[in-house]
Amino acid sequence: MCELFGITSNRKTNIHRLLNEFFSHAEAHPNGWGLAFFDEGHTLIEKEPLQASKSYYLKCRLNEPVETSCFLAHIRRATIGDESYSNSHPFVATDNSGRKWTLIHNGTIFDAPALSVYQHYQKGSTDSERILLYIVDQINGQLKTNPNFNDKNEKFTFIEKLIKELSPENKLNLIIYDGEYFYVHKNAAGTLYVKEQPGIAIFSTCPLDSCKGSWTEFPQNKLLVYKEGSVVYSGTPHKHSYVDDPEKIKLLFLEYSHL
């Protein structure tokens, strides 16, 4: 699968060492890499459909200090979608209010009929991009019909509802940033960890030795929402844990490949 990395903080933090360690896992995730910066209200995406350790651009990028208060990174091991720029994470979509939503995903969608229509509208061919398009489409419906949707609790519970509906039978480890809030969810055991200190939260698929001894496993089957490094919403757990099933992966690959 893929690996995720994210940070949300109330202050700029040097993540140079952590990023170099994160991208050192690229050999096992050879199908693309991506970064998302959000400082000063702007969204900057940098990505390539290339193994991170083979990217001259990324090598130069990581030679410079990286200080940020809000950031996402991804390395891709493809299950659905070929090796292309359009299939590399992060994905970005803008809702009808002008808010940008950025998503990184580690997982596979096996059963989600609601996502199927977005195959005709997406730029690439990944199930991850379809997740984001679906969420933003549902948000647009709420913006049109629900006058209270700009209330943060209305928004949090709505996003939680969508994630719970997508979780059965699917691996749904994801981080989403809406320009203000970090939404984090995992439903597969041992696949996302967090390091928290006052005013800072760092997330990684695997604990990074640069912070060894201070990582804890992220809560299972539960949406947490962060702002500037602190939890502002804790959802209610669901029961839809995902367990790897090689046979399901094989069948999905055969279906996708039309073999």
SSE map:
Layout: E1 3-14, H1 16-23, E2 33-37, E3 44-48, H2 56-61, E4 67-75, E5 91-94, E6 100-106, H3 127-145, H4 152-166, E7 173-177, E8 182-185, E9 193-197, E10 200-204, E11 216-217, E12 224-227, E13 230-234, H5 246-257
Antiparallel strand pairs: 1-4, 1-10, 2-3, 2-4, 5-6, 6-7, 7-8, 8-12, 9-10, 9-11, 12-13
Give your account of this protein's structure.
The chain has 259 residues and is an alpha+beta fold. It has one domain (3-257): Aminohydrolase, N-terminal nucleophile (Ntn) domain (Glutamine Phosphoribosylpyrophosphate, subunit 1, domain 1). The protein has 5 helices and 13 strands. The strands form 2 sheets. The chain has a 7-stranded antiparallel sheet with strand order 3-2-4-1-10-9-11, covered by helices on one side. Strands 5-6-7-8-12-13 form a 6-stranded antiparallel sheet, with helices on one face. β2 and β3 (44-48) form a beta hairpin. The chain is globular, with a radius of gyration of 17 Å. The two termini are 21 Å apart. Mean pLDDT is 92; it is low at 253-259.
How many strands, which pairing sense, and closed or not: the largest β-sheet? Answer: 7 strands, antiparallel
Structural class, please?
Answer: alpha+beta
* Low-confidence region ranges: 253-259
CATH class: Alpha Beta
Question: What is the assembly state of the chains in this entry?
Answer: single chain
Report mean pLDDT, rounded to a whole number: 92
Spatial shape: globular
Strands of the largest sheet, in order across it? 3-2-4-1-10-9-11
Query: How many structural domains are formed by the residues?
Result: 1
For the terminal residues, how far apart are their CA atoms? 21 Å
Beta-strand proportion? 25-35%
Under CATH, the topology is which? Answer: Glutamine Phosphoribosylpyrophosphate, subunit 1, domain 1
Q: Identify the CATH architecture.
A: 4-Layer Sandwich
User: Which value, in Å, is the CA radius of gyration?
Assistant: 17 Å
